[in-house]
Design brief:
There is one protein chain. Helices cover 16% and strands 48% of the residues. The chain has one helix and twelve strands. A twelve-stranded antiparallel barrel has the order 1-2-3-4-5-6-7-8-9-10-11-12. The model has no long low-confidence stretch (mean pLDDT 91).
């Protein structure tokens, strides 16, 4: 399981650890949907469309490593390395997302508490860079939802 801890009050920066060891970092963009991630010293860019419903993880050469589609919907997917991962919102009242395989829940991404900003990523069988990509996509989505709710209120 990965634990992502927010490291900045002003920006969406997270340090991601596994078994107490730092393995990745996420730095959300201030001006566009997405951000930058670093996994074991390898850098990637995450870019989203204007609506925040599609994201791509790009390597340094600009090649697509992973792609998320229908983000923000009840059901959405991530494709990477020839595998499609199926996610679903846990409930209408929760921000938690669950990973499904063969019709059963096999993993999840959720905030560790209602008031905190730390996130638990439990996606067994998913490669580490793809897990961190999913984390970045969800952090971006949750931030956009919070901004929209603040603007509406």
């Amino acid at each position: 399981m990965l634990i992502a801890k927010r490291t900045s009050v002003w920006r969406t920066r997270y340090q991601v650890s596994q078994d107490g060891h730092l393995v990745a970092a996420w730095d959300g963009s201030l001006w566009r949907s997405g951000g930058d991630l670093n996994v074991a010293g390898q850098g990637f860019q995450v870019r989203g469309n204007a609506w925040g419903s599609r994201f791509s993880m790009l390597d340094k050469a600009g090649g697509v490593v992973a792609a998320a589609d229908r983000v923000g919907r009840k059901r959405w997917t991530v494709a990477a390395g020839g595998v499609t991962y199926h996610f679903q919102r846990a409930s209408i009242w929760s921000q938690a997302q669950e990973l499904y395989a063969d019709g059963r829940k096999v993993g999840s991404v959720r905030k560790t508490s209602v008031w905190g900003s730390d996130i638990a990523v439990d996606l067994p069988g998913v490669p580490l860079p793809v897990q961190v990509f999913v984390l970045g996509v969800l952090v971006t989505m949750w931030q956009a939802q919070a901004s929209a709710a603040g603007a509406a209120g």
